[in-house]
Amino acid sequence: MNTMSNSVNETGVNTASFPLDERPKLLADKSFWGLNVTQFLGAFNDNVFKQLVLLLALPAVAAGAANNRASEDIQGWATFVFSIPFVLFSGFAGYLSDRFCKTPIIMLAKVAEIVIMFLGLLAFLYYGTFGMMGTWTVLFLMGTHSAFFGPGKYGLLPELFRASDLPRANGLILMATFLAIIFGVVFAGKLFDFLVDNGNASGLWIGSLLCIVVAVAGTCTSLLIRRTDAAQPSAKLSWGDCGISREMTQLLGRDRHLLIALLVSSVFWMVSTIAMPTVNRLGLDMLSLDKGQTGLLVGMIAIGIMLGAPLGGWLCQKLPSDRVVTIGLWGIVAALTLLGVWVQGNQLWLSANACRAALVLLGVSAAIYSIPLQVFLQNRPPSELKGRMIATMNQANFLGMMLAGPIYQFFEFVSRSMGWPISSNFWMLGLMVLPLALFYRMGEHVIKSKEFPHSK
Question: What is the CATH number of domain 27-227+241-445?
Fold first, then answer.
């Protein structure tokens, strides 16, 4: 059996149009850099706009705003609005990424981003007229754009790169993504402090101009990504493709380990999503930071994920993958426990610098936990279902993010009702993660291939 056939049977990677032994090495591949930079720029834009909307949803801002604004913390509901499109449209997006070449889909998504960022400019410019309704409409459109971008982006990885390069590719792309989050949330905080006056967000349209330029740049870098053959060009659209397709339902029904890994993966995004608005309140209420410094505090999680992503890829090559997942989960529990401690007078036990260190630990642990799961979900399905698998993963992840909005609002209600500080949210979140740390093991369903030599 030749090299190409072996690679197909062992990893499920479609090498028909680009034999494995002819693919360039990862760091020498312009498609990798095109995809990575495109993802970086898109993540930057997402997080600039989303953080601006979250800051507008804080009660400290609402207190001085017009009467079309909320008077309490509604960050969770803003997160809910952003997440809805992933649950609604990811199934259809996955069908498109399997039915057609993924590269043009990515390019079209980037063109749509330019239009959405322009609408964001208008939403801020006329904020006095439309209020939160305008910004939340753009937030919904941003989620829709990302729902169609995701399956093409992640489904393309096994088609573009060697199977042995997938852990490293995932780690580097995740690292770049969260570096973009750092820049995005910090930039948004500084922009907010400089341009928002007493709840009037109209001046934020100036910052939206930069987002339009970034969207144009991301469209240009997407041109570097080489085309691959459609994974399933004869696929017919069915009603199931608007949710979870029949093929994916059958696959998940047969493969219990794949189904469990899919559900466990969504916890990563739920934890990250609940942590972000909690850290916003932590910085502003408990540490008395300004919004720029609070943005940097949020960025500590992203720094941790950026550092933990390549570490997670390296650990997957040195240790059994179930052990890597367990290490990451216990690290998450430890970080959340530290962040939740307070003393008399509802004062935070940790100093600002110690909080930053604990948030970095949270990010590192979350990345270590997610990398083996993500590689498994990419590699496990047959090649003709990889796009729909990524779409289903998006649905699961963003169902977790969508649920994170109401869960955050519930945590915030409990802490407020009990007279606890907002840092108590971290303990409640830790109690959600603890059962996974105690009981979940990847075990026999880790990837059995040469890039994971210690897997059992």
Answer: 1.20.1250.20
